[in-house]
Design a protein that fits this description.
Blueprint lengths: L2 E19 L2 E15 L2 E6 L13 H16 L10 H4 L7 H19 L3 H5 L5 E3 L2 E3 L5 H14 L4 E4 L6 H10 L5 E4 L9 H5 L8 E3 L7 H8 L6 E3 L6 H9 L5 E4 L1 H4 L2 H13 L4 E3 L6 H10 L23 E2 L9 E3 L9 E2 L1 H6 L1 E8 H5 L1
Parallel strand pairs: 5-6, 6-7, 7-8, 8-9, 9-10, 10-11
Antiparallel strand pairs: 1-2, 1-15, 2-3, 4-13, 12-14
Bound molecules: 2-succinylbenzoate and magnesium ion.
Length: about 375
């Protein structure tokens, strides 16, 4: 595949409603989309960085900078055998996994189209339908959270995840658990606690949670191993895991019993598949996390979720939970039993609505192989 052109676009798009986590509230999304042309075929990727560095160090702005000044110049005009060879082109750039993932995943989409297969098939996925859960933001009251949970369960979702933070935890979880004693329930703290809170976190053991996601520091695997030894609830790592080496470290240290894989956080499909393989070989279940993506990022998440290690329902849910109007067609829809049917047509399997993207594009930059060579 020859990387003939790369186009970055920043789009601005408002979520249907604000999403609150322990690190902030998200409403007006600023998202970088990457379009790559390889062998005459156009592939799309989405950068999942947030507007602020509250989840990880990357932001929309740092991704734009690193893609523009380092990643695109390193990749333009290059000839690679497959998208899996892309990481080698950007190996000299440390970190910035979300920025890299935007371009790498666009190449995976292009490669699947060139080969005339679905992205799921190209990745080696086997599932035809994936299991879906939802992530619910922090609410004003436990009662309003219970109401939201009820609505999501009525839509068919198979697992409910509650965002928590200190002072917004026990009471909320207890209210949901009381109303729904048997549902698959988990919580996500996005690093809001410290190891000194172990005694407090042990109180969550009573709720029979499927997992507790990333309770401690975003970059501290060791502290999680110390916490896991003190609580019954399975810890799931999100923020801490950026590659297969981190996954191996976490598993060896017994810092978690489950791992959440996010394409952006690990740098794209190639590394995501490696993380999945490491976890699978050690009996650690994985699931696909979400970053409030548009349909492009969502379609990549769906394809990744078809790999064999993805045993638990992911945070991959319907477009309409987030957007009045998505930028792909058809929108991502969830069946009455909480699954998404994996598209079988070539590439992402959804049509990218370029017209809608153009209308909300606020800046753009294109690199061209001919110009780069001249
Ligand atoms: O930690 O999983 C997270 C959203 C933004 C940043 C971090 C996280 C989340 C979510 C939302 O939980 C998942 C989704 O896209 O539905
Ligand atoms: Mg998380």
């Amino acid at each position: 595949m020859k990387i003939e052109s790369i186009t970055l676009r920043e789009i601005q798009k408002r979520l249907k409603s604000p999403f609150e986590t322990s690190f902030g509230i998200s409403l007006d999304r600023r998202i970088v989309l990457v379009e790559v042309v390889a062998d005459g075929v156009s592939g799309w990727g989405e950068v999942t960085a947030g507007e602020t560095p509250g989840y990880n160090p990357e932001t929309t702005e740092t991704a734009w900078h690193v893609l523009s000044d380092f990643i695109a110049p390193a990749a333009i005009g290059k000839e690679i055998g497959s998208a899996a060879e892309f990481p080698a082109l950007v190996e000299h750039i440390r970190g910035h996994e979300m920025a890299k993932s935007g371009l790498e995943n666009a190449l995976w989409d292009a490669e699947a189209q060139i080969k005339g297969v679905s992205l799921s098939k190209l990745l080696g996925g086997t599932l035809q339908e994936i299991a879906c859960g939802v992530s619910l933001g922090i609410r004003e009251t436990p009662q309003s959270l219970v109401k939201r949970v009820e609505e999501e369960l009525r839509s068919g979702y198979q697992r409910i995840k509650l965002k928590i933070k200190p002072e917004k935890d026990l009471e909320y979880i207890a209210a949901v658990r009381k109303e729904f004693p048997t549902i698959r329930l988990s919580v996500d703290a996005n690093s809001a606690y410290r190891l000194e809170d172990a005694e407090h976190l042990r109180k969550l053991d009573q709720f029979g949670l499927l997992m507790m996601e990333q309770p401690l520091n975003w970059d501290d695997i060791f502290a999680h191993s110390q916490l896991q030894a003190q609580i019954k609830t399975a810890i799931c790592l999100d923020e801490c895991i950026h590659n297969a080496r981190h996954a191996l470290t976490a598993i060896e240290l017994k810092a978690c019993r489950i791992i959440n894989i996010k394409l952006g956080r690990v740098g794209g499909h190639t590394e995501a598949r490696e993380v999945q393989a490491v976890c699978r070989s050690r009996g650690i279940p994985v699931w696909c996390g979400g970053m409030l993506e548009t349909g492009i990022g969502r379609a990549h998440n769906i394809a990744m979720s078809t790999l064999a290690g993805f045993i638990l329902p992911g945070d991959v849910s319907a477009s309409k939970r987030y957007w009045e109007e998505d930028i792909i067609e058809p929108e991502v829809e969830v069946t009455a039993h909480g699954t998404i049917r994996v598209p079988t047509s070539a590439g992402l399997g959804y049509t990218v609505r370029r017209d809608r993207i153009e209308r909300i594009t606020v800046r753009r930059n294109t690199w061209n192989a001919q110009l780069a060579a001249a």
